[in-house]
Amino acid sequence: MKRVILAAVVLLVGSATMQAQSVRFGFKGGLNFANQTGSEIRVNSTNYKTDAITSYHGGLIAEIKLTEGFAIQPELLYSTVGASYKNAVEEFENELGYLSIPVMAKISLGKAVSLDLGPQASILLSEKNKFDAKNAETFDFGLAGGLSFNITDNFFLQGRYVLGLTDASKEAQVKNSVVQVSAGFKF
C-alpha cells in the first residue's frame, strides 16, 4: 500500500512539474492603428468621415502549451482605439480605452512563427473626445488574427488585426477595427 501511495505522489508531482513547464507568463505592449467603420457615422445629426488614429496597448499574457504545435494564449490588455472624425466644418478625435481579453489559439507554422486566431471581449473603461457626448457602448466583441514571431526563447514580436463585430456606439452603426504591432517578453 505504501508503494502505491508513493507511486501516486511521484506521478502527481511529476505531472504538476510537466504542467508548470507548459505554462509561460509574460507581458507585451505596442502600437494600435485604430479606426471606426460603419454605414452611418453621425454625431449630433451631422455626417462625418473617419480617419485612423495611432494609440497604444499593453498588458499581461499567459501561453499554455497543449501540444508541440498548439497553444492557447489568453491576454489581459489595456487598449485604446477610436477614430478621428471630420466633416467640412470641424474635426475631432474619439478615443476609447478598453480592458481587452483576447483568447488566441496559437498554431505553430515552424519553430519561430505561429498563426494566432481567436475571439476578443472588451469592456469600456474610458471615453475621451472633443465633443459633449458619452455614447460608446460598454461592451465590444471582436475576432482577432495575426502572426507571432519568436525572436529568442523569451522575446517575441506580434502583428494582429482585430475586427469588431458589435456596435461601438449607441447612436451610430460603427464598429472598431484595429491593427496592433506588439513586442513582448515571456518568462
From TrEMBL:
Keywords in UniProt for this one? Signal
* InterPro entries per record: Beta-barrel_OMP_2, OMP/PagP_B-barrel
Q: Where is the Outer membrane protein beta-barrel domain?
A: 19-168
The source's superkingdom equals Bacteria
Q: Where is the signal peptide?
A: 1-20
> What is this protein's record name?
Outer membrane protein with beta-barrel domain
